[in-house]
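Lab meeting, item 3. Inverse folding demo.
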């Protein structure tokens, strides 16, 4: 089981100085990843860097509201409401209620796809993660388990799903009370 503590992630400043990003995980080549999962701190309004050839999903996970303007269209995003858009688009962000923290998922068009949803956690019905899935604890208290191993999660810690171990009947599960972002990353067939 792989738990990625938020506290272990080193913030990297944005090129424009408007915030910082903590990379959780990425896949593909190091020079040109096919996908990237990160958490960003938006400290002041400003332009987003363009990522041509990438598809982005942006979701406020702390703070109240962010207003994204993507190719001239303004979207008011409340907490836990994801927005998918072309990474090459002209995008900027206003922060009408102050600084925010956001989950960012980027995938290379034609190479990978991604889905992002918010799941309510329960002790009775754990969230089971498959290979290529990640759960980020957004709010509340939770634990990750695989077989007899359990780890307590702090806010914004990430759990990575993996291939089931030989002889294992259950994969990695997340249970507790609160909410988690469930991120599914999948490779796209180049022949499609």
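The presenter then showed the designed sequence:
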């Amino acid at each position: 089981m792989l738990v990625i503590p938020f506290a272990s992630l080193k913030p990297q400043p944005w090129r424009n100085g408007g915030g910082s990003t903590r990379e959780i995980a990425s896949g593909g080549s190091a020079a040109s990843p096919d996908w990237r999962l990160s958490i960003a701190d938006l400290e002041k309004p400003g332009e987003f860097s363009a990522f041509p050839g990438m598809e982005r999903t942006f979701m406020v996970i702390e703070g109240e509201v962010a207003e994204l303007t993507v190719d001239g269209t303004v979207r008011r995003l409340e907490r836990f409401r994801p927005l998918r858009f072309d990474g090459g688009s002209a995008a900027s962000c206003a922060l009408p209620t102050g600084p925010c923290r956001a989950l960012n998922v980027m995938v290379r068009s034609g190479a990978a796809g991604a889905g992002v949803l918010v799941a309510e956690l329960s002790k009775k019905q754990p969230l089971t993660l498959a290979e290529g899935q990640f759960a980020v604890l957004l709010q509340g208290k939770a634990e990750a388990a695989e077989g007899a191993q359990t780890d307590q999660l702090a806010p914004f810690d990430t759990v990575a799903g993996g291939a089931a171990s030989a002889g294992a009947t259950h994969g990695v599960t997340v249970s507790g009370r609160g909410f988690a972002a469930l991120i599914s990353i999948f490779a796209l067939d180049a022949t499609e």
